[in-house]
Design goal:
Elements lengths: L2 H4 L5 E4 L1 H13 L5 H19 L10 E5 L3 H15 L8 E5 L4 H4 L4 H12 L3 E3 H6 L21 E5 L11 H10 L4 E4 L5 E4 L1 E5 L20 E5 L2 E2 L13 E5 L5 H5 L4 E4 L1 H4 L17 E5 L6 H13 L4 E7 L3 H5 L6 E5 L20 E4 L10 H12 L4 E4 L1 H5 L9 E4 L2 H8 L3 H6 L1 H12 L2 E4 L3 E5 L5 E5 L10 H18 L6 H15 L8 H16 L1
Parallel strand pairs: 1-10, 2-3, 2-5, 3-4, 5-8, 8-9, 9-11, 12-21, 13-14, 13-16, 14-15, 16-17, 17-18, 18-19
Antiparallel strand pairs: 1-12, 6-7, 19-20, 20-21
Amino acid sequence: MTSLEMQRIPSIKLVTAETARMLDAAASAVWGLHPFALVEAAGRGCAQVFAESFPGFFVPALRVMVFAGSGNNGADAMVMLRAMILRGHVSISRSVVVINHSTDADIMANNPRAGALRSLIKMGVPVLAWKDARSSPGIFSPTEGAALPYPLTQADIIIDGIAGTGLKGPLRDEASDMVACLNQVTVAVQSAEGTTLQRPCIVSIDVPSGNGDLWEPGMPILKADVTLAIEPVKAALYHPAARPWAGTIQVVGEVFPKALIDAFEGAELLNWECVHRRIPRIRGDTYKHQRGVVEIWAGSTGSAGAARIAARGSQAAGAGLVRLMVDAPLYPILGASAGGVMVVPVDTGNRADGTGAGPKERFHPDAVLLGPGWGTLEDRAFPLHKALDREAQGTPLILDADAIVLAKDCVFHGNAILTPHPGEFTALTGISKKAVLAHPGPILTQVAREKRAVILFKSHVLIIAAEDGRLGMVDGMAPGLAAGGTGDLLAGLCAAIAARMNRNAQGFDGYTCAIAAATLLIATGTSLTFTDPLELADKAAAIAGAAWL
């Protein structure tokens, strides 16, 4: 691999609200960046990113409303509106700012929110207190004498700056009422080209109001169509329980210096483009064993498809050899259409040690995968214990589905990857689905540390936690992947990447392996089609081949 090929596209830093607060303080104390300058950069950056990402929303006579709270999120939203006016995207006469509350002292205060508000007032933008707008008729439909110049349902864009991640507990009072009201207003309309657009488009600054590190399902939260996430991005956006409320997430950079962001710890927001370079390309003189040898124990009566998909996933991610160990009754089904996969029948009734018929130790895998469609019968104990012995000696082990349940009491040796979905994670740990979906980072990191294994948590956001504290998130929200067999495919991808890493000088690192497999899976799910996971494997093979061959 050339030095140019080895250059990495950096991941995006994800931080907690407390880390964001410390970064704000350091920006002022260490870098001399005044809060007014930061708000100005954030608001203008939001206006630019939104205009570049969603040009279809900019129509003649555009109507824009800003809902601003008392903090810097409200200031960011008002600066965004001012930038849109200065760019000519919206006229002053069709702009409205609604604030949760404001006194003369608030307006004259020396802070970014008051400064932005004074600027818009001087420009002639109408500013209303929420209590006045709320008590007046005409919030949802045109009414003569209403406080608002046009109702919420006639706005094209509503900018949400009601609350940020510094929120302690649930939204209350005016903020909660604003969010409840805005969650009722989205209506579908036809554009001139016949495309269905959502009017108004609700655009949240940084996070949808109500979201934060402490948010849990049931607390008030705004349903945004777009979230303009200011870098460093807040990890709470990607907590699985909260993720659907953010809509499309666009990252707004160049507000804080990169060196300042890098000085703080956080998780990684990952995608295929920033991950695939962490796995070396395959040299032209490589032979099959150097690409990695994978052994898969999978399938049972009624679940032969899981075994086939897992094996195909390993081929798609570049394994040089794949041996599929299946129950003897499945051998005629899978062996007849195995392609390049070595299918071996296992008849535990014929061997006291439970290994079944087939080659002895001539085959030495570089990685072992157990579990897709495997079942939890007693005869699984011997191959599981044998795989655990190999893991203790350094062979990467991937446990999926039923194998996770079988190994729930195990502590590993740093060479294992577990791939549970929420139900399997609860079976593994006893921790509720609700808890892990709402607050995944600390929970998954703790379990990874206790188990001495990498946890690849499967949901509409894939989350990877390592024993050493590394934490990665891969934004999914890809309904095309919501199909039986997708998890089996992911396990197969993991096994192939693990085998190649183990075989070559780079060595196996479970976190790097898991994030590569997770981002490869999501990269295959971007097209809006319904498909069989075997077809997804073909797409994964094309993407992986382009990157690694």
